[in-house]
Amino acid sequence: MNHCEVCCATKWSAVGTIYRARDLPTAVEGAEATLYRCDGCGFRWIHPTLDEEALLAGYRMIEAGAWGGAVESDHIERRQFVPKARLLASLAPQRHAALDVGCFRGDFVSLLDCEERWGIEISSAAASVARQRGVNVIEDNVFDAAPPREHFDIISCFDVVEHVTDQRGLAARLADWLKPGGIVAIETGNADCLVARAMGARWYYYALSQHLCAHTARSLDLAMGSAGLELVHCKHAWHQPPQSQLRAFAYVGTALTHRVASDILVSLDSACIVPSPVMNLAKRPSPQHYSRDHLWRVYRRAAG
Ligand SMILES: [Zn+2]
Fold first, then answer.
1. Cα(250) to centroid(ligand 1), Å
2. Which of 1, 26, 42, 98 has the greatest number of CB atoms lying within 10 Å of its CB?
3. What is the pLDDT of residue 275?
4. Is the bond leading into 25 cis (omega within 30 degrees of zero)?
């Protein structure tokens, strides 16, 4: 890469080393990679990542209960899908057709009060469940799928942008699928949130092997703006609200302690004074530490 894929800046810096989780069947626990940060827009990317074939193979093997849990109603409650569906309905000019990019089991798109409900999903098991719920599923990845152009009043695209490498290309496809005046809602991790900045390269979000990058509010607005999509609503969100704020603080505290201890051990490792079992623990992904660490932003295609 010789420039940032979002803002085209030519200056960036290495943030630190990532130790991967084995969260896809094709991923390797503890594999090392480097996190980079664009000096222009703050966009983060990771190198090296799983190659495209390994990623696609991993996605295809995901079971329908793997992401979001086995109970759909619990997932809908945790992800606050009902108020999100209400908000999108209030912002959309019409409600003829909706498309959920990465619809998985169709948990979200099934809630939208539209005549047509479409989804793009690569997991065969999850796509099968969505079809049983009446969702018109295109079983493919987002860059090969070809839903009708200028057809959708509402597009949702939750937990997807961090899985792809061509941010401007994705934005162009989303804009092309929207009717003029239609809206697209994006949910993704916020690389500029307090906990992400405190954790550096050890933020849990970067350790997830299917994540190739992370946005800031500025970089996401620039990527969507490159396709003519204008911001109409935004908030900082929990991906899943915690059972208690106290528990969330405890998890973040544990993760920060792990980060400091592991950084010290890794720096001592060059002197060969750390036993290998201890180093293996230091190079494990950080313990779970969720916070209000997601962007939730809605964009509109110009009406005319
Ligand atoms: Zn940039």
1. 33
2. 98
3. 79
4. no
